[in-house]
Amino acid sequence: RDLLICGTYQLVEGTEGRRAEEQTRLGRLWALRVDNDGVGDQSHDADDPKADDDNQSYRHHGLSVTAESMLDVPGVFDIKWSGNGESDSSLLGHAAADGQLYVYHLHHNTAGTRTLQIA
């Protein structure tokens, strides 16, 4: 299992003093591939990880994290898998800051990457 889903939440500055329904809350869902090549990178310490902005990947101490897809969504309160993440039948639920529940399925592309698509 090499897939990590990361959800973010950001309250837009300048909306904090407004009523809750008038505040803007942004989010993102990231599908990240995590690989362990078993080779520790001794040339960089914990405070100096390698990043590759061209393909949105990050490598540190033998772990490589690469963004496979990203969705702009309402702020993410919680996410939960249904299924094992290995097949197109896997679903991801997203409890959002706009009070809605969104459901996505995991799509395997022919290029070998995975994307989240609204179910």
Written description of the protein model:
The protein has strands spanning 3-7, 10-11, 25-36, 50-52, 57-60, 63-74, 76-82, 91-96, 101-108, 114-118. The protein is mainly beta and 119 residues long. A hairpin with a 4-residue loop joins strand 4 (50-52) and strand 5.
Summarize this structure as a short list of keywords or feature phrases.
globular; 6-stranded antiparallel sheet; mainly beta; 119 residues; 0% helix
Average pLDDT, rounded to a whole number, is 81
Largest sheet: 6 strands, antiparallel
The poorly predicted ranges are 41-47
Total count of strands: 10
Return the string of H and E elements.
EEEEEEEEEE
Q: Which geometry do the CA atoms define?
A: globular
- First-residue to last-residue Cα separation: 22 Å
What portion of residues belong to β-strands?
Answer: over 45%
What is the share of helical residues?
Answer: under 10%
Q: Tell me the radius of gyration.
A: 17 Å
User: Structural class, from secondary structure content?
Assistant: mainly beta
Q: Report the total helices.
A: 0
